[in-house]
Each structure stands twice: as structure tokens, then as C-alpha cells.
Amino acid sequence: MSKLPNLTPQQVIKILEKLGFVLDRVKCT
Fold it and tell me: Using one digit for the tens of pLDDT, what is the confidence trace for 1-27?
């Protein structure tokens, strides 16, 4: 079981946005 820190929705959104940005750059490459 992995222990994840309690993130607020805003923090989760920021993380997802960063991941999405990276994925988009990888796809464009």
C-alpha cells in the first residue's frame, strides 16, 4: 500500500496540469 499525502483538489489539478503538459510535449516530439 502506497501512502499518498492528503492533497487538496487545487494541488491535484496543478499536478495533473504538469503531467498533461509533459505528456503533450512528449507526444509532439
Answer: 567 678 788 998 999 999 988 888 888
Q: Is the pTM of this model over 0.90?
A: no
Distance, CA of 8 to CA of 21 (rounded, Å): 20
Cβ–Cβ < 8 Å for 15, 7 = yes
Which amino acid appears at position 2 of this protein? S
C-alpha distances (whole Å) from 5 to each of 2, 10, 16, 17, 28 are 10, 14, 15, 18, 32
Cell of 9: 483538489
